[in-house]
Amino acid sequence: GVVVTADHTLEHDEGITVTLADGKTLPASVAGRDSGTDLAVLKIDASGLPVAEVGDSSSLKIGHIVLAVGRPGDVGLSASWGAISALGPAWRTWAGGQVDQMIRPDLTLYPGFSGGPLIDAQGRVVGVNTSGLSRSLTLAIPTSTINRVTETLLSRGHISRGYLGLAMQPVRLPDSLRSQLSLGNETGLIVVHVEPDGPAERAGAFVGDILVSIDGKAVGDTEDVQPLLDADRVGKQLRISVVRGGQLQDLVTTVGERPQKGS
Question: Which of 39, 46, 232, 238 has a CA positioned 20 to 30 A from the CA of residue 199?
Answer without folding.
Answer: 39
